Amino acid sequence: MKKLMKFIALLGVTTTTTITAVASYFTVCTVKASSTCNQSFYPETGMVTNVNENLITVVCQNGNTFKFKDDIEEWIAGDVCSMIMDNNKTVSVYDDRIVSVRYSGYVNDDEMDKWVK
After folding, report:
1. C-alpha span between 67 and 97 (Å, rounded)
2. Which of 61, 68, 73, 83 has the fewest Cβ atoms surrounding its Cβ within 10 A?
3. Taking Cα atoms as reference points, which of 11, 4, 110 lies closest to residue 60?
4. DSSP state of 94
5. Which strands, in side-by-side order, build the sheet including 97-106?
6. Which helix (H) or strand (E) element contains residue 113?
7. DSSP-assigned beta bridge partners for residue 80
8. Per-residue confidence in pLDDT tens, the chain, 117 aa
9. How far apart are the first and last CA of the chain?
């Protein structure tokens, strides 16, 4: 139970930090009225379900699956990663791309089935 509470706390802090960072970016962009501001970014958190050499597969709580390449060989199934996504200014999620990825913790084996739908 303690591990679950630690995971929930870590996930909450990670999500809050990511949302705060993205909100700060958009606030700064709005104030500066810069042409480089892109309103198509959003945060997403997922769990690594497969690692095939440097191709990492991530499944999000909503069932969306994304893949990215990473030369860091430390990713394993059960790792939680926070991502900044770009929706390419479309409604479809199928053309969304990962802009940035950060390690955010892990899910133990008992919790994996609850995470992946």
Report:
1. 9
2. 73
3. 11
4. G
5. 65-69, 55-60, 41-52, 79-86, 97-106
6. helix 109-115
7. 47, 105
8. 666 666 676 666 566 656 665 555 555 544 444 444 557 999 999 999 999 988 999 998 888 899 999 887 799 999 999 999 999 999 888 899 999 999 999 988 777 777 665
9. 22
Integer Cα distance of 74 and 66 in angstroms? 18
Q: Flag whether the pTM goes above 0.70.
A: no
Burial 102-116 (b: 16+ CB within 10 A, else e): eebbbbeeeeeeeee
Question: Which residues on neighbouring strands pair with residue 100, listed in sequence order?
Answer: 84
pLDDT at 34: 44
Tally the residues of the chain: 117
* Rg of the chain (C-alpha set): 15
Given a contact cutoff of 8 angstroms between Cβ atoms, the answer to whether 25 and 38 are in contact is no
